[in-house]
Amino acid sequence: MNLAVPLLRSAAAALAIAVAAPLAAQDAPAQTVAEYPETPEGAKAWIAMVEADFADFSKAYAHISWINATYINHDSDTLAAKYGAELTLKQVAYANEAARYARIAGLDAETTRKLDMLRNGISLPAPNRPGAAEELNDIATRLGSAYGRGKGTLNGQPINGSDIEAEMGNLDRTPEELKEMWASWHDNVGAPMRSDYARMTALANEGAKELGFADFGAMWRSGYDMPPEQFAAETERMWQEVKPLYIALHTYVRRKLNEKYGDAVQPRTGPIRADLLGNMWAQEWGNIYPLVAPAGAGDIGYDLTDLIAKKNLDAVGMVKVGEQFFSSLGFAPLPATFWERSQFTKPADREVVCHASAWNVDNVDDLRIKMCIKPNADDFITIHHELGHNYYQRAYNGQDFLHLTGANDGFHEAIGDMIALSITPEYLVQIDMLDPKDVPSADKDIGLLLRQAMDKVAFLPFGLLLDRYRWGLYDGSIPEAAMNTGWNDPRRDYQGVVPPVPRDPEGFDAGAKYHIPGNVSYTRYFLARLLQFQFYKAACDTAGWKGPLHRCSFYGNKEVGAKLNAMLEMGASKPWPDALEAFTGERQMSGKAMAEYFAPLKKWLDQQNKGEKAGW
Predict the structure, then answer these.
(1) Considering 515, 559, 586, 612, which one is annotated as catalytic?
(2) Which residues on adjacent β-strands are paired with residue 498?
């Protein structure tokens, strides 16, 4: 469920960023120096040229990418690879030149900001010396392939990545089976990557330094309109705001697991065994909700999938309901082309990418979603989420090319998630899908909140530590010799989880998580988990909601829509605190709204945890 991956981290388009190959010389081409001199005015003119070039290229690339996602065959793969290689050339050439222009004295703030966007636009920067780009590309390809081919074992038999993920959430599996799957996946997939990953880190660090950053981690943290060290401190501050909620959840879940499995498997105190939480990485715990649910919590009075069936909604009908939500806030209807060009269901005659995503192919109003919709609750919620991306894309379509994205990389996902939070029983009553007499009573709230917290709250420390681990590798605070202990120690410290078996210091458990070998930054997901509640509370406050925050519905409130649009239409044209303030009145990202949302659950958890030793 995501926005189609941008052309640059700070600009809109359609496919994943290729690994950077520095094919541009460090010294500026003579033509560029003559046409765009190293002056503040020359830098501005050069940026305008780059934006125009990317704008033209992005449209063709987006069409190719769409075809490749919805008609997977040799020819579409070939075209996508060709355009991806061309993108690589552009990205690196422009990033290197942006680093040169960034050294000019007297640049205004907006020029500096756009130069930083261009320098930050490379997914994996290679050093500018013969053979380095090729080596980095080879390593990245090997790592990606190794993960894709990875297998664990279950009862001694090989099991692939998607199947082992599903089985980790299977409550019928024994602790021994869970332990086997966890250990085999980490040993078979992560450990063999270690030397390649260490080399990739060294090369990327070298490339980032050539672009003017202290290290690769500082390069990643430089995309937030503040110094890298300040951003790191801000994420820690936000974590501290929600940490008491997480600890309360951890303490409760640990007790329930102890009651289920006994002291020999899961002790009553200390960390939780990572393989018992229903997920290979213990990042979301929703799969084990039946083990921890309070009595009677499962009966909430209605089933959203049944409501969809009773309304006889097909895929397009479900999307129409989602559109109606935004129309009720005052947003214009989706264009006719949206209905003509989107992929709503899986075609019977070809292979497609079913993973849900939202697109703006021409960066104006060629909006589309790509899904394989099924008439169930999960896809109904996903539709609302994806449409949040589409309305954001259209709102900022008048901005400069480099500003055609969210205010920071957490905003886009948070908007979609905020809309998904709004699918409350009250909303379902308003759209005539739920009979008012079937609205669950307040005594059902704890079960509903606990189920949601098992994913949204449980995720937070993992969302934070993944990049903190990599920052440590990049700046040297985690030396290469400590690559494995440097991963498992923060997992214990932040998440309160530990491996089910002793780990080899020479292993590489972090490599068993896709985003590590895939080189995908992860802090954005931490930000989005918190921002969605901050946005949701702001909308509810604007709507004058007086009840518990988790019951709020702002459907039909035009004032909320106007304030939301004021933020959305800014895109990345202003530093993110300005965008945040436009909607919430606040200039700091915060976990306080999440804490308020789950306050009834926290009170209940504290009661349940009396006599238990909190923390680990």
Answers:
(1) 515
(2) 273
